[in-house]
Description:
The complex is a heterodimer. Chain A is mostly beta strands. Chain A contains no helices and eleven strands.
Amino acid sequence: DTGVSQDPRHKITKRGQNVTFRCDPISEHNRLYWYRQTLGQGPEFLTYFQNEAQLEKSRLLSDRFSAERPKGSFSTLEIQRTEQGDSAMYLCASSSGTGGTEAFFGQGTRLTVV
Amino acid sequence: QKEVEQDPGPLSVPEGAIVSLNCTYSNSAFQYFMWYRQYSRKGPELLMYTYSSGNKEDGRFTAQVDKSSKYISLFIRDSQPSDSATYLCARDNYGQNFVFGPGTRLSVLP
Lengths: 114, 110
């Protein structure tokens, strides 16, 4: 499978716990994006990487959120001290080159905070 | 004003109908547009990618961009029940990320 892979697919956690999600992009893609999607809404941009450099972060990405892409390959998104409002689908996408190229999404990680 | 607007639907059509899905956007400077299909509880799947104005066809799908009116359309010919999904339009955001509309939920009835 050469598509974008995300793990886990589902995560249920108690409020206040930390969670970490992983994304493996398409291998030759140097751009990696994290989005969040709630029910009935389109995906909302969180952050993106060009290789290992994190180039932009949305205002949605509070201090409790951190993302890394240490070697320019896979990426992790960590949420600390989860809140019920963090419950959403977290989507990862990758693309090649600079802007103006297609982005391909993974199947997402569905987070439920109870 | 939202940057990309879509009618959320739901839109219900009989099998075999031609479906027209539409988006509007706010800034005529944007040039790259995408349509994604998203099944329930799945990630978005890229359907069509267009640059600037004009039409692009791929099988039963045609994407159309009208920059003068800031209007993006996706047409689905001979619609099938398997086309039932949410359709998201998106625009490239100055080469940095992508801005999505809220999506239109489509049901194709057999």
